[in-house]
Specification:
The chain is of the alpha+beta class and about 350 residues long. About 25% of the residues lie in helices and about 20% in strands. The protein has an 11-stranded antiparallel β-sheet, with helices on both faces. It has a two-stranded antiparallel ribbon with strand order 3-4.
């Protein structure tokens, strides 16, 4: 992998990740852009104890542009985009309309391919592996920022999810705090460790799912994917490396090599859940990594107790119908799942590649 860092016209950082070492990236951003001004602010809710990012400047962000005006495609002729070069493999840049910025963290965009009409599932294993390297590199770089305590790599796919740019891309958030979801896991981890005399909750969950087998969707030599026992979403899969590590940085070469094959197969199965004649499946793919900030409030827990894993789920519950977060989910955070996890796992096994 070759990494080339440059700056856009408004001062934002942009990084090219190339599979070839002989690629030269010296294109200049000639757009007449003013310096980016953001109004991001993080406010803490005194009742729930969580944090909310207030980012009013995002109201003016790019919204469903036509394909020939896509800001994530390479620049070509007089059509200038966020990527100055005329081609790229994988590219990462600071979001022009960030939810978090400055002392409140950082937001980046990850473009998986220069091909506007592809999705992640269409990538080659080599290209998917390059994306993994980019995620890993950005996790390492952002972890050194004073304003970042937790790094979150994710992809939103599909208009139903709220995606406003059709180009295949994801995002990376550097939060200035430990997120509520992660804090809940850390508390459960600490409680389990105390109650079991030091056993690791993540390790026990993975072991139990493999032994039970009814919810295992896909298993390789170094990765295992299963629908969790208490899945929140109609079709939800958790993907774990079999050798527990706290973050992407901890993956060894064997796990990195196998990941593209396993992950691409999962994504392709997701597109087959509802039938060949149905639109592509909207989904969220989210990496859970250990925070880089202090874990003192979670007594007895350290970073190495956390287990890196990816959560992949769709909000579509059946053909033509979405799972809405209604009163119980939105008002009380109590999910009601219409699809039994065992049924979801069986369906995801049925649609395996031949």
């Amino acid at each position: 992998m070759k990494k080339t860092s440059t700056r856009l016209a408004d001062g934002r950082e942009l990084i090219y990740y190339d599979s070839r070492d002989d690629v030269v990236r010296d294109a200049v951003d000639h757009r007449p852009l003013d310096r980016t001004v953001t109004t991001s602010e993080v406010r803490r809710d005194p009742l729930l104890g969580d944090s909310v990012a207030i980012a009013s400047h995002r109201q003016g962000r790019t919204y469903h542009p036509p394909a020939d005006e896509c800001p994530l495609c390479p620049s070509e002729g007089e059509r200038l985009s966020e990527i100055p070069d005329s081609s790229y493999d994988v590219v990462v840049f600071e979001n022009r309309f960030p939810s978090l910025a400055g002392d409140s963290g950082r937001c980046e965009v990850v473009c998986f391919t220069s091909d506007h009409d592809k999705s992640f599932a269409d990538l080659s294993e080599e290209q998917a592996g390059l994306v993994l390297e980019a995620w890993t590199d950005r996790t390492a770089e952002l972890s050194h920022l004073d304003s970042v305590e937790q790094v979150f790599c994710f992809e939103n796919r599909g208009a139903e999810i709220g995606v406003t740019l059709g180009h295949p891309h994801g995002q990376i958030y550097g939060y200035p705090f430990t997120t509520p979801r992660t804090a809940l896991m850390l508390r459960s981890l600490a409680q389990h460790k105390e109650q079991t005399g030091g056993r690791n909750l993540f390790a026990d969950v993975v072991e139990q799912e493999i032994e039970d087998g009814s919810r295992v969707v896909l298993e390789g030599e170094h990765w295992v994917a299963f629908v969790p026992y208490a899945a929140h979403w109609p079709y939800e899969v958790h993907l774990y490396p079999k050798r527990q590590v706290p973050d992407l940085l901890g993956l060894d070469d064997a796990a990195r090599t196998e990941f593209p094959k396993v992950y691409l197969e999962l994504l392709r199965r997701f597109d087959r859940i509802f039938g060949a004649d149905q639109p592509v499946t909207p989904y969220i793919a989210a990496w859970h990594q250990a925070p880089f900030g202090s874990l003192d409030e979670f007594e007895g827990v350290n970073r190495d107790d956390f287990a890196l894993h990816l959560e992949l789920f769709t909000i579509r519950r059946t053909s033509g119908k979405l799972k809405f977060l209604a009163g119980s989910e939105s008002g009380m955070s109590v999910f009601i799942n219409d699809v039994p996890p065992e049924t979801a796992a069986e369906r995801l096994r049925e649609v395996a590649s031949k």
